Amino acid sequence: MRTAPRIHLSKKDRVLLGAFAGTSREPSRFVYRARIVLMAADGLDNQEIASRLGITRQRAGRWRNRFADLGIEGIKNDAPRSGRPPVITKCKKTRTANLTQNQLPESGRWTRRKMAEVSGLSASTVGRIWKERGIKPHVRANKLTAEEKEEAALRLYRFRMSLADILDQADSGEFR
Length: 176
Known about the structure:
The protein is mainly alpha-helical. It has 3 domains: 11-76, Orthogonal Bundle (Arc Repressor Mutant, subunit A), CATH 1.10.10; 91-133; 145-176, no CATH class. It contains 10 helices and no strands. The chain has helices at 11-21, 28-41, 46-53, 57-70, 72-76, 90-102, 112-119, 123-133, 146-159, 163-172. Helix 2 crosses helix 3 (46-53). The longest helix is centred in the N-terminal third of the chain and has 14 residues, at 28-41.
């Protein structure tokens, strides 16, 4: 018969887990995990922990073992799960993002459809890439430097004509 590993907590770990177990700010799954480890450190077996917390014996054993192997970091995060590998590689995403930001199409701005045609991805995928990277090609940003802005403002100030001057010239026929 297998026996559960004994849990020995340092004072620091016990205080930290006690704080997590007694809070409502942490996700409930982490609170449960902290309670399981604290009860295991007090010498309770998995069946007793399970009955006190209203969980299964296997769940209590899983988190006891994970803490014994990895410490607090082991119970903070879930283990990576298997799943389908990503179809769109990071390279394709980076290439699409760089193309969007560094090259303009003939029409002057990118749309999801145009980028989908160029990149070979679907319009929905292009939209997801833009969203996760915060790219908004429909928003035109003023890309002038501070010096260029100042120079443009001075030019406008020097060469502007008041509305009254323009209307006077238009009435007199001088302005065409």
